[in-house]
Structure formats: structure tokens, C-alpha cells
Amino acid sequence: MTASEGLVDFHCHLDLYPDHRAAVQEAEEAGIFTLAVTTTPRAWPRNHELAQATRHVRAALGIHPQLVGERASELALWDAYLTETRYIGEVGLDAGPRFFKSFDLQKQVFEHVLRRCAEAGNKVISVHSVRAAKSALDHIEKYLPLGQGKIVLHWFTGTKAEAKRAIEMGCYFSINAAMLSSERHISMVSALPLERLLTETDGPFTKTGERPSKPSDVLIVVEALGRLHGLSSIEVVANIKANLRGLLEFT
Ligand code: MN
């Protein structure tokens, strides 16, 4: 039993660290449930292979909205792998200035992804929604009705009203340290029900000190959530574990 045993990193790009295999091994040895999201379907086979040999790491099949502009043609490959996994991500929408030109295409791809997931049933989906909370929720409501899959909104930065809508739609939220360092986001996060929260790093895209974050760094999120809710880290960890169990229960 290590200090990180039982932690959850529900959104981490293990394949984007310098040594993919070592990153998977480190999460496994630390006993951290880690959702290894991918950005392109081409990355699926290797991620799947490495995760399959572990107890704690799960690979997710993704097509990242920021790559859709160049890689929409890989959607057929995404379809081909869909039956191999319950976990989907990173998928979603990004209306930030760098990606807005592909926004229409992103919407088509996200619609396709959600429809396929609804048909297949029982998928757990890590969703990106930068500057597109409303559109992402509109899509989810339309193409993945409640009970046809589970949504985890990753790094959600919508308004409180949008968060309330997402809660009513049954969504979960994976919270990272960066979200808890901005006043506006803290206020939104503190209004989320504890039973819908998971933790994430989004490593290696985020930093802890000077180095890229890694799964064990979710402890920082655990501590911050504890301060927010007046709970000990042990209580927060127990909550997050219970939430993960609830999320993964078969529908
Ligand atoms: Mn990500």
C-alpha cells in the first residue's frame, strides 16, 4: 500500500510522456485508477495493449477536438475500434480561437461519436468542452440521452448555470488542480455535488511545479477539494472512489 493507493486520475495522456510504458507502469505500481485518454484512433492499439496488462490503468479511445481539423478522416478507424473498449475520450468540442475554424467539423464528429456510443450502450466518455460548454451539452442531450452512456466532463469551465444543467443531465466532472487555482472556477466547482466529482491531472499538459503532472499529483486536487468541503483527504478519497464505483456500475 502506497500513499497514492486508491487515487483516481480520470484524464491523463500516458502516451504523451517520453516513456509511455514507464508512465503506465508508474500509475499501476502506485495503485492509481488512471484513465489513459488518447487523442487519435491511431494511438489506440498500443494504449490498449499496455493498459490491458494492468489492474489500474484503462485506455480510452479518442479523437481530440483540437485534432479533428486534420484527422477527421480517422473517424472510420475510431468506429473500427469502438467494440474493443468501454472507455471513450478524449472527445468533444473546442471553440477556442485556434480551433474555431474546425468547429463545424468538430460538431459533426462529436455527433457521430455520441450516436455510436448511444447505439453501443454502456460507454463512459471523457468530454472536452473548452469555450463550448453549451454546445457540448446540447450535443449530449440530443445524441446521448440519459441512460445510454455516462459522461464525465473533463476540465469543465462553463458557468454555474451550465454546470447545473450538466448535473441535471447526469454528468460527472473530473476536476484538476488548474481549475482550483482560479477564483471563478473555484466558485463553480464548489457548487458541484460531491457525489459527481472525480479527479484528474490532464498530464502531461498541466504542470506540478516545474515538471509535467503525473497521476499521483491528483493528491493536490484531493487536498484542495477537502479544503473546499471541510473534509479530510481520506474522506475525499473515499468519496471519489465511491463516485468511480457508481459511475462504472453497469447501466
Ligand atoms: Mn486532455
Features:
binds manganese (II) ion; 42% helix; alpha/beta; 251 residues; three-stranded parallel sheet; TIM Barrel; five-stranded parallel sheet; 10 strands; 10 helices
Instruction: Walk across the major sheet and give the strand order.
Output: 4-5-6-7-8
Number of domains: 1
The main pleated sheet reads as: 5 strands, parallel
CATH C-level class is: Alpha Beta
Percent in helix: 40-55%
What is the number of strand segments?
10
What global shape is seen? globular
CATH fold field value: TIM Barrel
How would you sum up this structure, described in words?
This protein is an alpha/beta fold. The chain has one domain (8-249): Metal-dependent hydrolases (TIM Barrel), CATH 3.20.20. 42% of the residues lie in helices and 18% in strands. It has ten helices and ten strands. It has helices spanning 20-30, 44-52, 68-71, 75-81, 103-120, 133-143, 160-168, 183-190, 218-229, 233-248, and strands spanning 8-12, 33-36, 57-59, 87-94, 123-130, 149-154, 172-175, 197-199, 207-208, 211-212. The strands form three sheets. Strands 4-5-6-7-8 form a five-stranded parallel β-sheet. Helix 9 packs across helix 10. Bound molecules: manganese (II) ion. The site of manganese (II) ion has 6 residues, from loops. Manganese (II) ion binds next to loops.
